[in-house]
Amino acid sequence: MTLLAPRNTWYPLTWSRNVTRALSRHRILGADLVVYRSEAGEPVALDDMCPHRFAPLSMGKLKGDAIECGYHGMTFGRDGRCVRIPGQPTIPPNARVPSYPLHEKMGLVWIWPGDPALADPSLIYDLPQFGQAGWHAAEGDALRIDTNYLNLADNLCDPAHVSFVHLSTLGNAASEEIPVEHTFGERGVLVWRWIRDAPAIPLFAKYGNFSGNVDRWHYYDYVAPCIAVIDFGSADAGAIARPEDRGAGLRIFACHFITPVDEHVCLDHWLHVRNFALDDTETDQRLHADFRIAFNEDKEILERIEEVAQARPNAKSIRLAIDAAPQRMRRIVERMVASEADTRASA
Predict the structure, then answer these.
(1) For a Cys staple, 259 with which of 221, 267, 273, 319, CB 3.0–4.6 Å?
(2) Which part of the chain is the Rieske domain (predicted)?
């Protein structure tokens, strides 16, 4: 599988907590970047290659807001322009490296790898409950998965797999025969199902203290190309008459912000936002332990699928009804990439 990814969009690069005054190397869309914070605290990303002898700038030194190459001392400002060549007063105009727009939101540093003139921070995904009263957000990890990022997006548009892959945490057999519903938009898909009057899944049985059966829901909200937010929860059976009132139950948003590292590797930056145990850091850690189990189950099966696909490049998969949303997800990404190609061609 090739790396099918639009460039004029915001991608999560890394957690804000990982960007410091130390130079660090990050890879996205097959490109290596050097990332650091300016003296004013703003994140900076430059191409991680000195244009002289191609030494990684991440091996250099930070001098104020500029990077001094560790090979011959060429120094580049935060905008990528060379500001010093030792022993040479004249700096040629091509002595520069690409720089990238960055913006911080929801605990992450986001990067715009396309046309900088189009980098509008208001286009970054927004979860209304993040930071609102009555909700608690807890940052998780950055899980490396050795598969193309669209394979992870497939998984995150697919409630049906939960009944079989996540029986220890997020699913049980009660949902196996419940069909999924979906709606499609220009930039995303929404897939959902309700399981009525059934036993609670292990995770909500642990945190909800339910005395009997529950009504539970899964809403998988995908926004192209790299955002997947799963709204799931439970309430006593019959307690919620309308789907829009599900905030009255025990409710969690599991947020997955995907970084396409290259053709065969992605990072799943995940966090959760919940409406219970708001000031309980112990619940943060317990939930994160449960999520790590579940997400590593996804990692294991996705990486095995990748191995099989590479070993059998001519194999053709069959399509089921549950594949409608993942197929539409891929069509949306393809249209975004094609639109950018048309724009470049016309220019």
Answers:
(1) 267
(2) 10-111
Please give the radius of gyration of the chain, using alpha carbons only, rounded to the nearest integer.
23
What tens digit of pLDDT does each residue of 227-284 get? Answer: 999 999 999 999 998 999 998 999 999 999 999 999 999 999 999 999 999 999 999 9
What Cα–Cα distance (Å) separates residue 313 from each residue in 106, 148, 194, 316? 39, 15, 37, 9
User: What is the rounded distance in angstroms from the CA atom of residue 59 to the CA atom of residue 76?
Assistant: 13
Could you tell me the residue ranges of all domains in the chain? 11-121, 132-338
Check if the beta carbon of residue 75 is closer than 8 Å to that of residue 91. Answer: no
- Letter for the amino acid at 138? A
Q: Please state, in angstroms and rounded to a whole number, the distance separating the CA atoms of residues 35 and 25.
A: 6
Distance (Å, whole) CA 302 – CA 258: 14
d(CA 13, CA 44): 11
What residues pair up with 274 in beta bridges, in sequence order? Answer: 136, 252
What CATH code is assigned to 11-121? 2.102.10.10
For domain 132-338, which architecture applies?
Alpha-Beta Complex (3.90)
Beta-bridge partner residues of 118: none
